[in-house]
Amino acid sequence: MNYSKIGVRYAKALMQASVEDNLLENVKNDMLYIDGIVKSVPEFNQILLSPIIKPSEKQNIFKVAFSTSLSSLTVKFLDLLITHRRESRLEDIIRNFLDQYRNYKGIITASLVTPVAIDEATKNKIAAFLQSKYNKTIELKPTIDPSILGGFVLQVEDLQYDSSVQTRLRKVRQELMNTQIENE
């Protein structure tokens, strides 16, 4: 079985069920919550991936841990994953679900890399500019990387605009190396 397709199929099924039941926002919040737990609690991953723990025991653990904090649809979905022994694909399913959610809501994720932190006003101006250009909601994720020295690197979908000092210096160096010195 192609494991990359598993995540997409289960995420698509969860997406359809959440839209039909009018629980899309609740399920999205549940997926973000579970994703945070998966990434921050190593014991949770051990339980999730353990072949020693029986599926029925995993289901009980999940019901006790999540029944009060997650929507009923999400709890049923987790139960289904465990029944079909797909709990090891949970991170992939969450990632695919969140991608499908953004696509459904018309949200584009943009990445902005700067050498220093940017203020909220600048972040809002960049997001507003991108929203007017793409006619979609922009989810801007700023990142700090001092190695770019100055300028910025902006990536929106498959388009990358690199205006970093590091890249400019690399281009100048390449041009200088390719230049031949003429003897007179």
SSE layout and pairing:
Blueprint: H1 3-20, H2 24-40, H3 42-49, H4 55-66, H5 72-83, H6 90-105, E1 107-114, H7 120-134, E2 137-144, E3 153-156, E4 159-162, H8 165-178
Parallel strand pairs: 1-2
Antiparallel strand pairs: 1-3, 3-4
Would you write up a description of this structure?
- It is a single chain.
- With 184 residues, the chain is an alpha+beta fold.
- The protein folds into 2 domains: 101 residues, Orthogonal Bundle (Peroxidase, domain 1); 72 residues, Glutaredoxin (3-Layer(aba) Sandwich), CATH 3.40.30.
- Helix content is 61%, strand content 13%.
- Strands 2-1-3-4 form a 4-stranded mixed sheet.
- Helix 1 packs antiparallel against helix 2.
- It is elongated.
Number of strands: 4
Q: CATH architecture of the largest domain, please?
A: Orthogonal Bundle
Q: What is the number of domains?
A: 2
In DSSP terms, counting alpha (H) and pi (I) runs of 4 or more, how many helices? 8
| Biggest sheet character | 4 strands, mixed
Task: Determine Rg (CA atoms, Å).
Answer: 23 Å
CATH topology of the largest domain: Peroxidase, domain 1
Helix content: 55-70%
**Beta-strand percentage range:** 5-15%
Look at the helices and sheets and give the structural class. alpha+beta
How is the largest sheet built, in terms of strand order? 2-1-3-4
Q: Considering the protein shown, what is the CATH homologous superfamily of the largest domain?
A: N-terminal domain of the delta subunit of the F1F0-ATP synthase
Main CATH class of the largest domain: Mainly Alpha
Q: Which word captures the global form?
A: elongated
- What is the residue-averaged pLDDT? 90
Separation, N- and C-terminal Cα atoms:
68 Å
Q: State the order of secondary-structure elements, H for helix, E for strand.
A: HHHHHHEHEEEH
Model regions low in confidence, pLDDT < 50 over at least 5 residues: none
